[in-house]
Every structure is written in C-alpha cells, then in structure tokens.
C-alpha cells in the first residue's frame, strides 16, 4: 500500500501585534433612593424645626437625596 502525502492546513502567522482593546469601564451601580431613606431625612428636617408640613418635609427630603446622587 502506497503512502499518501497529506497536506496539513496551517494558519498563517501574523507579524503584527494584535491591538489591545481598552476595557470598557463598568458603570457603578446607581444608588437607589429608598422610601426609608426619604422618611429618615424628612424626619431629620422635621426635628431641625426648619421644615414645613409633612408633605413639604418629604418633598424637600426627596430633592436633597436626588441632588446628592
């Protein structure tokens, strides 16, 4: 039986370096404002004596917490 010449497929060698792709920065998770956080801040506003009605204190607390993000 005669031997066959087998041809091996080869991958050509690159002479140039593969460019590195910069890592995409992972955005930090957004801090979620919870009901509890708003309630605590509204209570602090109430205790300071500078607040208004319950609703005014709540809305002010929401504004302050959102501005702090």
- Ends apart, CA distance between termini: 80 Å
The computed structural class is mainly alpha
Number of strands: 0
Q: What is the H-and-E element order?
A: HH
**Mean pLDDT score:** 84
Cα shape? rod-shaped
Radius of gyration (CA) equals 32 Å
- Number of helical regions: 2
- How much strand? under 5%
- Please give the oligomerization state of what you see: single chain
| Unreliable segments of 5+ consecutive residues | none
In words, what does this structure look like?
By secondary structure, this protein is mostly helical. It has a domain at 35-67. The protein has 2 helices and no strands. It has helices at residues 35-48, 54-67. Helix 1 (35-48) crosses helix 2. The chain is rod-shaped. The chain starts with 34 loop residues before the first helix and ends with a helix. The model has no long low-confidence stretch (mean pLDDT 84).
């Amino acid at each position: 039986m005669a031997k066959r010449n087998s041809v091996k497929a080869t991958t050509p060698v690159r002479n140039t370096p593969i460019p590195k792709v910069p890592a995409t920065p992972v955005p930090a998770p957004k801090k979620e404002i919870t009901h509890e956080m708003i309630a605590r801040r509204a209570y602090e506003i109430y205790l300071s004596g500078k607040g208004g009605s319950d609703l005014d204190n709540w809305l002010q607390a929401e504004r302050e917490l959102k501005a702090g993000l």
